[in-house]
Structures are given as structure tokens and as C-alpha cells.
Sequence to fold (110 residues):
Amino acid sequence: VKKLLKQQQSPTQLAEEWKSIPMLRLFDWFCDWSSLILRYQLTQDEAGLGLPDMRKVVQYLAQKSAQGKVLDIQDWILAQRQKVLSKANLNPALLLEALLVQWVSLPGQR
Fold:
């Protein structure tokens, strides 16, 4: 995810790398990360930034993203997660790319 945000990797490249990870797990990760971003935006509590491997990313996104945009993406993630749960006929590669495109659009919308 760091490489994606630093534009060292495209959403398509990362989606290709992650294609073997279950879609539900990916949506759970992104939902958790969006919750951590919102929590940090509200509390500025570094202890609540989550696991060490994502702390800097979560903090960066919290500082650079508008709260409304984070809420919108979280809503989108939850809606797509529900579609995955209901076994909707979705193209997993395109869905993952769409998720990553949404995610990379977070910073800069403050």
C-alpha cells in the first residue's frame, strides 16, 4: 500500500500481486484501516494507529485526507464487501482495482 501511495506501483500492479488474497479479507483490511484513519483524525492518539507495519500509512492518510472522503470510501468499501458476502457475480480483479483507485485518491482532498 505504501508503494501505491508513493506512486511506485499502480493499482493494476498491486491488484495483480494481491489476486490470491481472499476478497473478503482485503475488504476487511481496508475497512479496518479506514476506521483507524477516522479514529486518529478524531483523537490524534498514536496508540490507536493499529499494527506497526501500517502505522505510518494510517497516520499519513489521516493527516492528508478529508474526513468526509474517508467516510465516503468506508461506505463504498462496506457496500462492496456486502456484495462479496452475498456472492454477487463480480469481477474480482476489477473490484480490487476499483478499491485501490479509491484508496489512492484519499490524500490531497483535505
User: Anything to note?
Assistant: The longest helix spans residues 23-43. The mean pLDDT is 91. The two ends are 20 Å apart (CA to CA). The chain has six helices and no strands.
